[in-house]
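User: Structure please.
Assistant: Input sequence and predicted structure:
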Amino acid sequence: MKVTADEDKSHGGGVLVVGASAAGLATAEALRRQGYEGGLTVLGAEPHLPYDRPPLSKQVLSGTWDPDRARLRPQEILDALRAEFVLADPAVGLDVAARTVHTASGRALRADAVVIATGLRPRTLPGQAGLAGVHVLRTLEDALALRAGLLAASRLVVVGDGVLGAEVAATARDMGLDVTLAGPQQAPMALQFGPSVAESLAGLHAERGVRLRPGAGVTGLTGRDGRVTGVSLDTGEVLPADVVVVAIGADPVTDWLAGSGLRLDNGVVCDSRCRAAEGIYAVGDVARWHHERLGVPMRLENRTNATEQALTVAANILGEDRPYNPVPYFWTDQFDAKIQVHGVPSADAEVTVVDGDREGRRFVALYRRGGRVTGVLGWNMPKQTRLRRQEVVDALPGLAPALG
């Protein structure tokens, strides 16, 4: 459906964005840039105006940034957006037919179009809720609480060797803590990078003093007097800890949509236009949409996707018929390494270094499956990586068989 200013005035609805983080803000901004003049409401579960999450595990956690620096826009820019921000009031239900969102405080917010941008919720370990010193990292409060814990501690164990766990380990090690990184993979981020590049990342962490426990099965936490003392492994060993960070992934926040009639399966299931139902869209980490050029459902958890997908959602709300067919992209900063990835590199792909050299930790690698380029990874070579991205773009129409 197309939402216009006239329709907004006649029905008192406008556009309601549920989620006040990067994807939600980007959607609101894209609507204004594309000419929408009607009512615009942004509903947020947190008490904060929109802020950026990638700095939480790095600059905010280390203390090199004041928390206010993570805000996505200054107040005057938000004011110019002419949007009503309703904060600290989580959505608890959605009436799809009436396009009405119900909130924890009892509000009923009706709109002509609803955009779901509720993001992710970190997974936890059994028993962690009752122990002080155990942290997850998703929100600004999480980051500040973890920083306070690290400043008072000497030993950190990070459970989970994906991108968040590896970033937290690197930041904490730079802060001077004794850090152990434990996870099921043979090297940090092996599922994302494949074994050869992941081994280079493991080497970087080991050189900087991070203790790696690859292939570790975590069975639980130990504690004394209500505070964590260690992490138990399936080998029977206990890794001693003053602080533990649990970084074992996150799940889309869709529980509030139970009973709404929307299809929920690893996110809000959408068509190629990011539309979940008539007048209902999803954007960002929570959206699982059909990628037409790949012919597969896809859900991406990264900052770039939040911005790019918002442009498509805004255009479709305003009457375009635009599929969302991105080249996936993400980056991570760990110690002095800036790693950028375009496409879909996989653990079983053939990896070839095409620029630089791996030993010097300044290189570009191409990933191929079935003879097709599926991804490009750059380590401290941003310009060359962007140039190689075109090879992924060129292979995109035929990429699905190679990914299968």
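The first helix runs from residue 5 to 11.
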